[in-house]
């Protein structure tokens, strides 16, 4: 079958029809069957085809095996998040022409989608996933499971809880016997965490952690430990000093192994710990450091910028003009990336910093809370729902307070 794919690729590249290739050698029907892997063939016929196409079939077979190895190495580099290796292998694969016409074409496309997700280029990843769904109905078992994994990761990139539910549905379809990549446990655990199913999240993240430890995947080990710690830290009755100490240990590990991406996530999460307990100055410090490690065009940047500005406002830690500049920057970046959640969040900050409270509470009620509710953004819904509830209680509008109490 592989030989047939090679013959077809170079025939089409030479601009020959099947009839022209087979002229004086065999029938057009026989050429077609060879290309589709539907018949036996002699070495002599393949040698004649090769001469006509000016190729060495053995060299081409060896190169195709090299492509298979390159794809495997690229997949492993993406799993391990080794940036230099990822880019080098991508460049080498992009120089290959036959990969697009071989049985590995769908694998290449799916790994390219995963590469875009690694780079936070979500729309590019979606475009490839959609193309694969339309053009490749019959995949190898490994490739089909890779497709399920990549699509699950794509859904995780969303801020919408419904997409997180879709991630769970897709990832649960993976057959580990055919796939062999236990890394997907981490993404499944993450999806369960995002819908607040902590028991299921802990179950899968623990399985992922053990896998990462066994394979010496230090970056993903650190990420799995951070996610398990985040579940513990969500409980306000947990030992705060233990949590902070554990975060600092994980951050130290990041510095030791050069895990800048993980360090940013941990600093942001540690900022939440201080913010949730009203320690706004400490929260601001950690959010600011986390922000410095995020790419300016990433969703992480918007999340951390919002957190930084919010902590500054809560603690009265920055001047109004500084806050206005930061909010404008965040709003513009949210619009450029069409991030509807953060467009709304920065609009709330803008109205608040300008002290336009009538517009602030109106926007909260008519736009923000319905959006948080429909997107199942529970923490935001509860936070802003409580603010609006207290506003209406304070203004003796008990009917309105009752209406918005469903958000709390």
Characterization of this structure:
- The protein contains 23 helices and no strands.
- With 408 residues, it is mainly α.
- 77% of the residues lie in helices and 0% in strands.
- The mean pLDDT is 91.
- The longest helix is centred in the first third of the chain and has 24 residues.
Instruction: Please tell me how large the radius of gyration is.
Output: 27 Å
How would you state the average pLDDT, rounded?
91
Order of helices and strands: HHHHHHHHHHHHHHHHHHHHHHH
Shape label: elongated
Spatial gap, N to C terminus: 61 Å
Query: Which bin fits the share of residues in helices?
Result: over 70%
Q: In DSSP terms, counting alpha (H) and pi (I) runs of 4 or more, how many helices?
A: 23
Strand tally is 0
Query: pLDDT under 50 segments (min length 5)?
Result: none
Largest sheet: none
- Beta-strand share of residues: under 5%
Structural class per helix/strand content? Answer: mainly alpha
What is the topological layout?
Blueprint: H1 2-14, H2 18-22, H3 28-35, H4 43-53, H5 57-80, H6 83-94, H7 105-118, H8 122-135, H9 141-156, H10 161-171, H11 176-179, H12 184-194, H13 198-214, H14 218-233, H15 240-257, H16 260-276, H17 280-292, H18 299-315, H19 320-336, H20 340-353, H21 357-374, H22 378-394, H23 398-404
List its traits.
mainly alpha; 23 helices; 408 residues; 0% strand
